[in-house]
Amino acid sequence: MTRILFVCHGNICRSPMAEHIFRHLADEAGVSARFQVASAAISTEEIWGGRGNPMDFRAQRELKAHGVPFYPGEARQITAADLAEYDLVVLMDRGNLRGLRRLLGHLVDEAPEGKVRLLLGDAEVDDPWYTRNFPKAYREIEAGCRALLAACISGKLPQS
Question: Which of the following is catalytic: 56, 87, 93, 127?
């Protein structure tokens, strides 16, 4: 089983979209049992009094428009235990990587090569919270998830 954690700034837009898109693609490919997928945040901005906010309604609307099943979930912050537990930690942009390094320091730098990566390789998924362009974010995340799924299925990425 490959354990994948998608990470963005607040865990209310991009990372939960990626979590559900990846699950949906894996289900369509008949390989969902091979994956454990979740999402988390770098920040605690969307966590109040120990409870995380649900996925942004615009992200939910975009998933619905593409027929991707989801649950609203609750934002949560990534932990050192997550970094140890997951085979892949997939970030949406370089700011997320900087935030992860600030949060978990040397653990990020000591992770096996390729474990911590950007979803789109050298490119970034712009945060639709700021751009308001949820359709563009969906397209980019879906493309990244398709490539990630293909790499996992072909054995080019880690499995536990």
Answer: 127
DSSP result, 27-42: HHTT-GGGEEEEEEES
Q: Annotated catalytic, 127?
A: yes
- What local confidence, expressed as pLDDT, does residue 46 receive? 96
Given 14, 23, 56, 145, the catalytic residue = 14
Alpha-carbon distances of 64 from 133, 134, 140, rounded to whole Å:
16, 12, 16
Query: Is residue 106 within a helix (H) or strand (E), and if so which, with residue range?
Result: helix 106-109
**Digit-coded pLDDT (tens) for 71-116:** 989 999 999 999 999 999 999 999 999 999 999 998 998 999 899 9
Domain ranges of the chain: 2-153
Cα separation, 75 vs 53, in Å, equals 5
Mean pLDDT over each residue of the chain, to the nearest integer: 95
Predicted TM-score (pTM) of the model is 0.96
Residue 140 predicted with pLDDT over 60: yes
Q: Is 34 a catalytic residue?
A: no
Fold of the CATH domain 2-153: Rossmann fold (3.40.50)
Respond yes or no: is residue 14 known to be catalytic.
Answer: yes
